[in-house]
């Protein structure tokens, strides 16, 4: 039998992947889901006009014969999983005291069946939070007390149900501003900060500690490895949290990076910076885009994924995983999670450039291993 990816790294770190809930739905649920997507698409079209040229709606997750290479890949090659969308607050918290556990339960079951560790992504985030949580019945902004109570109830409800199932929890996601490098505030999309003030981060961690006494508690963000300012901003934040006795124990580097940037040396520096504070570091959402996209408002044109490109990408993955191995050896890095399995089904298709596909993962559009996979699995 061929070698399994996670086994190649078992002495260093766990290797995980994000799995979309679409793979865990029944055909009828999936059909219903795509009907809803089409409906939303139509509403958007009415509101904003036709989609950008070349835009393709997401592909169904299973082939016409019902098979799904992605699910097989997730089972075979990863010893940790995380839900791509189904454990975000908008998927679970449906109203005051109202929860939808259906898909989260399936992830717990899937991880159990496959003997995999499970991460919870995420408790507090300015995106994919339900609108109702910030509003009262008249649609006005809720008070600090009300929102705090709602958040606390949520964290305890999730902890009560899954505290024994999840080993790692993204308590706060993407809280550092890209512009100011301090906490993202109300003018920078965070209704949490706007209503609760900066102390929401500490509070969420204290509640999470009580609700998930066995899990590691993560503060997770993107571009920490890419932007010196953001890296420093996170450093100052977690240093302050530690000095206040806040139970954060891990920094999550999302690692949505590309074929060129950032250099591996900068990633190494980032891991060691947080490690120097006594924190663990994990890679939470990695992929290696084919596009550099210096400016998201003017993204690179589509390129061909030639054999040369695939080799270059394989070398890049090799260098990154060499660095991860080294940092795990020093005791800093604990887990490496990829944001998906195959290029057919990655959020980078259409983002940040609608209509442009990407090829950032280890398996291709047919679910076949790419050169990057072969390189990683080699001793
Ligand atoms: C993305 C999912 O992959 C998409 O399916 C969804 O439409 C939007 O969110 N940072 C995060 C992840 O923390 O939750 C995001 O996931 C990618 C960026």
Features:
379 residues; alpha/beta; TIM Barrel; two-stranded antiparallel sheet; 16% strand; globular; binds (3S,4R)-3-hydroxy-2-oxopiperidin-4-yl beta-D-xylopyranoside
Question: Would you give an account of this structure?
Answer:
The chain is of the alpha/beta class. It has 12 helices and 11 strands. An 8-stranded parallel beta barrel has the order 1-2-5-6-7-8-10-11, surrounded by 6 helices. α11 links the parallel β10 (280-289) and β11. The longest helix is centred in the last third of the chain and has 23 residues, at 307-329. The relative contact order is 0.13. The mean pLDDT is 95. Bound molecules: (3S,4R)-3-hydroxy-2-oxopiperidin-4-yl beta-D-xylopyranoside.
How are the secondary structure elements laid out?
Blueprint: H1 5-8, E1 14-19, H2 27-48, H3 69-77, E2 80-83, H4 89-92, E3 93-95, E4 98-99, H5 102-113, E5 117-125, H6 144-162, E6 168-173, H7 191-196, H8 200-211, E7 216-221, H9 228-243, E8 250-253, E9 256-258, H10 264-275, E10 280-289, H11 307-329, E11 333-338, H12 371-377
Parallel strand pairs: 1-2, 1-11, 2-5, 5-6, 6-7, 7-8, 8-10, 9-10, 10-11
Antiparallel strand pairs: 3-4
Helix pairs in contact: 6-8, 10-11, 11-12
The structure holds (3S,4R)-3-hydroxy-2-oxopiperidin-4-yl beta-D-xylopyranoside.
Residues 84-85, 173, 254, 285, 347 line the site of (3S,4R)-3-hydroxy-2-oxopiperidin-4-yl beta-D-xylopyranoside.
